[in-house]
Amino acid sequence: MTGDLVRRLRQSSGAEFATDRLLVIGAAGDETVAVLRRDARPDEARAGGRAAEVWVARGPGMFHRAVDYISYDLACTADDSGCASMRPDGLGFAAIRRQPGGRTFVVVAETGNHEVTVRTAEGEAKNVGPIPTGGIVEVATEHPWQIRLEIAPTPGQAYVLPVPPGGVIED
């Protein structure tokens, strides 16, 4: 299945790409979401940041680039010592896909083999466990920009994985 999705993404993008650029690809309701690593801007790369682009396909249709550039591994929320200690090893990628009908999906990648918990503004907490190859999980929320992702590298230690500017993808 993943091989077919990668072929479709390559065809849609009009370019070949190494599969190690693919951070995550998978179903988000009736859509497929793919995240590809890309070169970070020089100033962000110097600060340890990385970048990705997000592609979305509805049903069996072609992918379109929904977001050209999203930064990640760049910043921590204020006063998050767990994040600051993990930042040199990479924090991970987070984005939120808000579909036209209101369904909301959290897209997470590069969080290592760490526990991932998604918290909504409405109080729902969904532990999605370790997702070393990335994952996409649906949550019920009216406030996608207030979703909080907590990554626990060890029991009792966690940091917040910030959703970057432009990380709530609507169309």
Description:
The chain has one domain. It contains three helices and twelve strands. It is 13% helix and 45% strand. The strands form three sheets. Strands 1-2-3-4 form a four-stranded antiparallel β-sheet. The protein has a four-stranded mixed β-sheet with strand order 9-6-5-12, with no helix packed on it. With 171 residues, the protein is mainly beta.
Q: Any descriptors?
A:
171 residues; mainly beta; 4-stranded antiparallel beta sheet; 4-stranded mixed beta sheet; 3 helices
Concise summary:
The protein is mostly beta strands. Helices cover 13% and strands 45% of the residues.
| Largest beta-sheet characterization | 4 strands, antiparallel
User: pLDDT average, as an integer?
Assistant: 89
Number of discrete domains: 1
Structural class: mainly beta
> Fraction of residues in helices?
10-25%
Low-confidence residue ranges: none
Please state the overall shape, judged from the principal axes of the Cα atoms. Answer: globular
Q: What is the chain-wise order of helices and strands? A: HEEHEEHEEEEEEEE
Q: Give the termini separation.
A: 26 Å
Order of strands, main sheet, comes to 1-2-3-4
Radius of gyration: 15 Å
List the helices and strands and how they pair.
Blueprint: H1 2-13, E1 22-28, E2 31-38, H2 42-46, E3 50-58, E4 63-72, H3 81-86, E5 93-98, E6 104-109, E7 115-119, E8 125-130, E9 135-139, E10 148-154, E11 157-161, E12 168-170
Parallel strand pairs: 5-12
Antiparallel strand pairs: 1-2, 2-3, 3-4, 5-6, 6-9, 7-8, 7-10, 10-11
